[in-house]
Amino acid sequence: MSKISLVGVATLALxxxxxxxxxxxxxxxxxxxxxxxxxxxxxxxxxxxxxxxxAAMVLKAAKLVKRGKVATLGKVYxxxxxxxxxxxxxxxxxxxxxxxxxxxxxxxxNDEYLSTEIGQIGTQFDGPGHIxxxxxxxxxxxxxxxxxxxxxQTYGMGSLGVEHVAKKGFVCRGVLLDAVALRGGQLPIPxxxxxxxxxxxxxxxxxxxxxxxxxxxxxxxxxVFLYTGHGDIWHPSKWDTFDAAEKQKRIAAFNAGExxxxxxxxxxxxxxxxxxxxGDTWATEAVGAEGTNPFECHVQMMPRRGIWNLENLDLSxxxxxxxxEFLFVWSPLKIKGGTGSPGNPIALY
Length: 349
Prior knowledge:
By secondary structure, this protein is of the alpha+beta class. It has one domain: Putative cyclase (Glucose Oxidase, domain 1, 3-Layer(bba) Sandwich), CATH 3.50.30. The protein has helices at 9-17, 30-33, 55-62, 163-166, 179-183, 203-213, 244-255, 263-271, 296-301, 316-320; strands at 70-72, 89-92, 99-102, 107-109, 113-116, 124-126, 133-135, 138-141, 145-146, 170-178, 200-201, 223-227, 260-261, 276-279, 308-311, 325-330, 340-342, 346-348. The protein has a nine-stranded mixed β-sheet with strand order 1-18-16-10-12-14-15-6-17. Strands 7-8-9 form a three-stranded antiparallel β-sheet, with no helix packed on it. The termini are far apart. Mean pLDDT is 92; it is low at 1-23.
């Protein structure tokens, strides 16, 4: 079996299964004609846009903490929560107790055994090894690396591993964009491409939200998060109150598509030199009417520019408090060779 056929399931599913490859035999050579590599941080860079962070940016972001409030933005990881495709979260506590007793105290302990796509389920961070495109020279990923490279193996993504981003971490000005307030209600799954569909959040919408919310323009080093209301289908505080039938209904609705950024918004955010984008949905970008270009923002933001994505966030507290600017602190786990990471980001304001 070839190495290509053995690459990590999460990466292969997205680089092929979501349609990036197009018809059999088709290739995308824009990474070469548009010179996606080397990145502006050099041919050896493995971390991407988080490199923009400076000490001055961190100190300025820290001044956004004015109310002394903390919001955790991660959702609960559990077996019956919504997940993309056939992904799943399966946890067992072996033994009950797992081990012991020890000593005169009769100490016992428990461990958990977890089987999951650990970087690509629930609240999840898309790292360098998650998204790529098929080219005439191989499967292209951030900064000109390929799945065919010698260090990319079934048991780890090598130079594309998420640990290279985790060594940096994210401490930045967080910006909440409340599209529900802009639209006057939860955004629908888009049915067509373009600004006329309310499910597509455009560059003009981004500018309008910034103005409406009375915050400084989005700029270099910012982390930008979109609230569409679609994520409320998977309501973090009410999920366990729903019966099985209601949960299945909500999972189907959650996974059917999603509102989100369109390519004009993503290109605009990239031009502002943000370092992270994310939202309350499972892809952050609009999914439902992309035609021949599904997940175009994923391609343009990540393998092209190294601007990583943080999905399935719980933004409800920030929305309720109208905390449109905040200190954002988070790092992916240092999973050697991983495509992404779970996590529970923190917003302070």
